[in-house]
Design a protein that fits this description.
Layout: H1 2-26, H2 36-60, H3 77-88, H4 99-102, H5 109-125, H6 130-144, H7 154-169, H8 176-182, H9 189-202, H10 212-223, H11 232-247, H12 256-271, H13 280-286, H14 294-304, H15 314-318
C-alpha cells in the first residue's frame, strides 16, 4: 500500500510541474497571444486582394456587369456573339430585302404592318415570350421571300408562323385550336396544320436564328456603363423601339444586330438628347460606327414620333403600361443632330 501511495504522489507531482512549466512558457514576454480581432485583421488583406482581382476580371471582360452570373456565359460571350453575327448574315436565314416588290403580287407593306400589329396582340393574349414574336415575324418575312400568297391567306400564314415559333420557344405553347379561335375560326385546324407544314418545308426546318432581341440585351448592358444608376427605363425603351421596328417593312433589309444598335442609339438620345448617344465601347461591342446606323435610326425615329405606322397601336399601347415604365409616352426631339452620326464619343 505504501508503494502505491508513493506512485500516486509522484504522478501528481509530475503533472503539477508540467502545469507550472506551461504557465511560465505562456507568460514569456516574447510570446504573443493571438486574439480574435487580430485573426480578422490578418485575413482582411487576402479578402481585399480577392476583391481587386474580381474587379480586374470584370474590366477585362468588356465591362460586363454580369460577370458573376454563370448564365451570362461571360467567359465565352465574345465567341458566342461572334457566332451569332456570323449566323445572322447567312442567306438561308435572311429574307429578301425587297420581297414585296419582287415576289408578292397581292400583299403590301401596309398589310404586313397590320398583320404584325395584330400578332403583337395575340402574343399578349396568350402571354407568349417576346422572342416568340420576333421569330414569328422572321418566319413570315422568310416565307414571303420565296412563296407567293394571296392577301386572304396572310393571316393564316401569321398564326401558323406563330404556332411554329411558340413550339420552338415556349414551355407550354398554345395548341392549334387556340390559333383557330383567335382568328374567329376563319381557318380550320386542317388549314393551319397544312400551312405549318408548308412554312417548315419552305424554311428547310432552319428555325433557330438570332433576332434583334438577341442583340438588344447585350448592347443595353454596355450602354448602361455610362449611367451612374443602371435603371430599367433604358432597357424597356430599347425593347419598345425594337418592337416598333418589326412593324415597318423598311427595316427588313437591316441585319438584326444593326437594328439593335440603332435602337440603343435612339434610346440614349431620347433619354439624354444633349449627350452624344454613341460611344467607343458601343462601337467596339456592336461592330458599327455611328454613321452605319443613320438610315435605320431615322426610320425608327419616325416610328417613335408616329410619322410612320401611326395607325398601328398594339406596341404603343403595350409599352404604356407601368410595368414597362410607360416608355412609349416618352417624347423625343424632332431632329437628331448630324454631328451625332459623324463619330463616337470618346
Amino acid at each position: 500500500m505504501a508503494d502505491q501511495g508513493n506512485c500516486v504522489r509522484v504522478t501528481r507531482l509530475a503533472k503539477k510541474r508540467e502545469a507550472e512549466a506551461m504557465v511560465q512558457y505562456l507568460q514569456q514576454p516574447n510570446k504573443k497571444r493571438v486574439v480574435l480581432a487580430e485573426i480578422q485583421n490578418q485575413i482582411k488583406p487576402k479578402t481585399k486582394q480577392i476583391t481587386t482581382k474580381r474587379k480586374v476580371k470584370r474590366c477585362v471582360n468588356e465591362k460586363d456587369k454580369e460577370f458573376d452570373d454563370p448564365q451570362m456565359c461571360s467567359a465565352y460571350v465574345s465567341d458566342i456573339y461572334g457566332y451569332l453575327h456570323h449566323m445572322e448574315i447567312e442567306n438561308k436565314r435572311r429574307p429578301l430585302p425587297d420581297y414585296l416588290e419582287k415576289i408578292q403580287k397581292d400583299v403590301t407593306a401596309n398589310m404586313r404592318g397590320v398583320l404584325v400589329d395584330w400578332l403583337v396582340e395575340v402574343a399578349e393574349e396568350y402571354k407568349l415570350l417576346v422572342d416568340t414574336l420576333y421569330l414569328t415575324v422572321s418566319y413570315i418575312d422568310r416565307f414571303l421571300s420565296v412563296n407567293v400568297i394571296p392577301r386572304q391567306r396572310l393571316q393564316l400564314l401569321g398564326v401558323s408562323a406563330m404556332l411554329i415559333a411558340a413550339k420552338y420557344e415556349e414551355i407550354s405553347p398554345p395548341n392549334v385550336e387556340d390559333f383557330c379561335y383567335i382568328t374567329d375560326n376563319t381557318f380550320t385546324k386542317k388549314e393551319v396544320v397544312k400551312m405549318e407544314a408548308d412554312v417548315l418545308q419552305s424554311l428547310k426546318f432552319e428555325m433557330g436564328n438570332p433576332t434583334t432581341k438577341t442583340f438588344v440585351r447585350r448592347f443595353t448592358r454596355v450602354a448602361q456603363e455610362d449611367y451612374k444608376k443602371a435603371g430599367l427605363q433604358l432597357e424597356f425603351l430599347g425593347y419598345y423601339l425594337a418592337e416598333l421596328s418589326l412593324l415597318d417593312y423598311s427595316c427588313v433589309k437591316f441585319l438584326p444586330s444593326l437594328v439593335a444598335a440603332a435602337v440603343i442609339f435612339l434610346s440614349r438620345f431620347t433619354l439624354q438628347p444633349k449627350s452624344h448617344p454613341w460611344s467607343l465601347a458601343l462601337q467596339s461591342c456592336s461592330g458599327y460606327k455611328a454613321a452605319d446606323l443613320k438610315e435605320c435610326v431615322l426610320i425608327i425615329h419616325d416610328l417613335q414620333l408616329s410619322k410612320r405606322g401611326s395607325t398601328l397601336a398594339a406596341v404603343r399601347d403595350k409599352y404604356k403600361l407601368h410595368k414597362f415604365k410607360c416608355v412609349s409616352t416618352l417624347s423625343s426631339p424632332l431632329e437628331i443632330p448630324d454631328s451625332f452620326f459623324e463619330h463616337a464619343r470618346q
